From TrEMBL:
Pathway: Steroid biosynthesis; cholesterol biosynthesis. It comes from the Eukaryota. It comes from Anser cygnoides (Swan goose). This is Diphosphomevalonate decarboxylase. GO terms for cellular component: cytosol. One of its GO terms (biological process) is sterol biosynthetic process. Residues 273-452 form the Mvd1 C-terminal domain. Residues 92-259 form the Diphosphomevalonate decarboxylase-like N-terminal domain. Its EC number is 4.1.1.33. The lineage of its organism: Eukaryota, Metazoa, Chordata, Craniata, Vertebrata. Keywords: ATP-binding, Lipid biosynthesis, Lipid metabolism, Lyase, Nucleotide-binding, Steroid biosynthesis, Steroid metabolism, Sterol biosynthesis, Sterol metabolism.
């Protein structure tokens, strides 16, 4: 049964300067949480009282708030202090492949039929935030995605959990001095600040974030891209920043199918990314089912993996090393086109692009033809949303072209998001050569970002409170900050109310983790 989490009341985000030891989760504006959600994870009188509207516990943003919260939680039948869950929150980035992965040679281990290469995007604009908690009081594993409970018994999630626990057991050896028992069940809440299952690599960021959180929770360090791959193949690329290659590998056990950074995000500081969001709807054919169908029925896919991709990988790595946008852009578009050709070669055919996607492709080619060189390059994953690569000095003009071609229907003030975009006058000669019949509202909004590191957000984004987009709200409808919403989902499900957090000890962590904390 899928349980939807109700919207929580708005709480002012704490500035980074307030993240100190003993600080609570938020300000005093938050009201009590009532109803069924407060009863999840409890039993007996405590569950009945919570379901009937018993007060939730909300720590104030002050030293000592944590202690008050714990005491109040115990009074109402919540978890006692010594039995509170261990909790970790982290973030992970999205990656966009420029040499695509499509098809598995082993569906259980998620081993690809070809290597791939991607660009990790900056977490200031696109990220997944995941909170994971483990406790002896949890009776089952539970998972919430964007505020809605989903099946935690799904094989890929359990595979990641088993692998992290195996590594933790190996690391601890025979002497298990950790207070966190590996048999404890986990509760996980994950939020994306971008459309899910719409061709924007949500599963990659999601599983990278999940593995980072679980690894931090269980004290696992070292190479984790192989573990992330067990959840979603492309997730291994989100474990690293900048420009990343996922090696196909040759071993049947997949131990050599791992991600490797080719260059950091600082290698090409002028490179920019425009995401033209055409649809936020879930795609009709998921990537897992789609690629299996292609493996079974597409001769083109087999030829691509064996004869085309190896040479393209070498060329793409060279273009990136030399910061050759002309070569990088052309090859990015060619590989995107061939990927979607294999989808059409699949039987029955798979259609991930729509009419607006094809209009964007045509617009990019007209724009490049007008300038006599490749100034913008499109790529599409398994969905209709376009990812446009360009150099910084091209962004303003091309955004003006897109705005003229796809005028915003009603969200003009929210049409441009992410990094600032300057105002560029559009020459009539360019408009006449490039802009076809305008299609109002076809592009919902444009998100401007750039390549990013594996670790978390910038200080400025953290200072602003990790506000969700679009509209500054989380996909679950919660007006809270992303991290707060995810934490509340797990902690309320755990029946623990709001815990105080030792924020003074928060540290950037490895493997894409932004920050982590445990209950005070």
């Amino acid at each position: 049964m899928r349980t939807a989490l109700p919207a929580l009341r708005w709480r002012r985000p704490l500035p980074v300067a307030s993240c100190r030891q003993g600080a609570g989760l938020g300000g005093s504006e938050a009201g009590p949480l009532r109803g069924p959600i407060a009863a999840i994870g409890r039993s007996g009188p405590a569950a009945e009282a919570a379901a009937n509207g018993g007060r939730g516990c909300h720590a104030r943003a002050a030293v000592g708030g944590a202690a008050r919260c714990r005491a109040r939680g115990s009074e109402r039948g919540g978890m006692a202090e010594e039995r509170g869950p261990a909790v970790v929150t982290c973030t992970a980035p999205v990656n966009i492949a420029v040499i695509k992965y499509w098809g598995k040679r082993d569906t259980d281990l998620i081993l690809p039929i070809n290597s791939s290469l991607s660009v990790t995007l900056h977490q200031d604009q696109l990220r997944t935030t995941t909170t994971a908690a483990a406790s002896r009081d949890f009776t089952e594993d539970r998972l919430w995605l964007n505020g809605e409970e989903v099946d935690a018994a799904q094989p890929r999630l359990q595979a990641c959990l088993r692998e992290v626990r195996r590594l933790a057991r190996k690391r601890r050896g025979d002497e298990d001095a950790s207070p966190l028992n590996l048999s404890y069940k986990v509760h996980v809440a994950s939020e994306n600040n971008f459309p899910t299952a719409a061709g924007l690599a949500s599963s990659a960021a999601g599983y990278a974030c999940l593995v980072s959180a679980l690894a931090r929770l269980y004290g696992v360090e070292g190479e984790l891209s192989e573990v992330a791959r067990r959840g979603s193949g492309s997730a291994c690329r989100s474990m690293l920043g900048g420009f990343v290659q996922w090696h196909r590998g040759e071993r049947p056990d997949g131990r050599d199918s791992v991600a490797q950074q080719l260059a950091p995000e600082t290698h090409w500081p002028e490179l920019r990314v425009l995401i033209l969001v055409v649809s936020g709807e879930k795609k009709a054919v998921g990537s897992t089912a789609g690629m299996q169908s292609s493996v079974d029925t597409s001769p083109l896919l087999k030829y691509r993996a064996e004869a085309v991709v190896p040479e393209r990988l070498s060329r793409m790595a060279r273009h990136i090393q030399e910061r050759d946008f002309e070569g990088f852009g052309q090859l990015t578009m060619q590989d995107s086109n061939q990927f979607h050709a294999t989808c059409l070669d699949t039987f029955p055919p798979i259609f991930y692009l729509n009419d607006v996607s094809r209009a964007i492709i045509a617009l990019a080619h007209r724009y490049n033809a007008h300038h006599g060189r490749t100034k913008v390059a499109y790529t599409f994953d398994a969905g209709p949303n376009a990812v446009i690569f360009a150099l910084e000095d091209t962004v303003d003009e091309f955004v003006a072209v897109v705005r003229r071609s796809f005028p915003p229907a009603s969200n003009g003030d929210r049409f441009l998001r992410g990094l600032p975009v300057g105002t560029a006058a559009l020459p009539e000669e360019l408009a006449a050569a490039v802009v076809a019949e305008p299609v109002p509202g076809a592009v919902r909004y444009i998100l401007h970002t750039k390549p990013g590191p594996r670790r978390g957000m910038s200080k400025e984004t953290k200072r602003q409170g990790l506000q969700m987009s679009p509209g500054g709200k989380s996909p679950s409808g919660c007006g809270k900050t992303q991290g707060e919403a995810a934490r509340e989902m797990v902690l309320e499900a755990a029946g623990s109310g709001c815990w105080g957090w030792r924020r003074g000890a928060l540290q950037p962590a490895r493997h894409g983790t932004h920050w982590a904390a445990r209950p005070a």
